[in-house]
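pinging the channel bc i need a second pair of eyes. not urgent but kinda urgent?? the chain im working w is below, pasted from the shared doc
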Amino acid sequence: MKQTKKVFNNVLDLVGNTPLVKLNKITSSFKGKYFAKVESFNPGQSSKDRIALYIIEQAEKQGVLKPGDTIIETTSGNTGFSLAMVSVIKGYDCILAVSSKSSADKIDMLKNLGAKVYVCPAHVSADDPRSYYQVAKRLHSEMKGSVYINQYFNQLNIDAHYASTGPEIWEQTEGKITHLVACSGTGGTISGTAKYLKEQNPNIKVIGIDAFGSVIKKYHETREFDEKEIYPYRIEGLGKNLIPGATDFDIIDEFVKVNDEDSAHTAREIAKTEGMFVGYTSGAVTQGLKQLNEDNAFKKEDYVVAIFPDHGSRYMSKVFSDKWMRDQGFFDSVHEESSQPIEYIK
């Protein structure tokens, strides 16, 4: 029987409907069943494709974004890539204020997609005029015909995942999901996905993964912004030094903090155990699963879904570089250098 192949108009038709993949080895000693929502299957290789396309299309429908306009955004890299990709297809200019913490790989990708990139110092306060938040706002105020996406405070960030990621997970698990575990940066992914899932079953537990050096976990527990929580950390796209308006703290049950070193090694472990080459935040969310398991957070009958936000190719100069890992002091008696040596035949 002759088969027909579906042809897509452009890469934007491929956004969403990412696979749910069972984790077998890295969670083999855990109670319960574990699955990864692998967002690197989006055409821009991250979950941010969803919000970029959704927010831009909503802006077009509302007449806010018109032909010839310029899209401006604050990004740690992934949202910028997705916005630049959508801009290429739809014909907009794209300007991105990027944190210096973003990997060189991400910055090079943005540049090669035609975006104008401003690299801003990572370890300054959010209200510092040099911060990527303030630089994006300034550029928007100075440029006529520009639209500032403002993912950290844009309700559409939540709506995008409510409309797509949540329904997909509910359908893929046939309603069996008991726990959603996801990293929280802007908070849009976890908030929108959780909102949909809890409407289907309010007993689903939602667990956010935060970074040491971020204010998010303490704010969730106390509703107080504590500047003393802030200090430099290396994980990109996770945690914050401000309170994002795109995070629905009421819908998240608890937060778990993970550190840079463990998350980096766990990202490498995922590749070597599950064959998935995924990013730093995927290592962070899996490290969170490990810590939760150690605290007996899961039962045998639980059905746990973790969101893997992006692809490992964006971290070749960081967690997948032995040199970078050595420079951070991440190889020690606990975490020994384990990459296979390269042999050159002369």
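so The first helix runs from residue 48 to 61. and The chain has a mean pLDDT of 94. — does that match what u expected or am i reading it wrong
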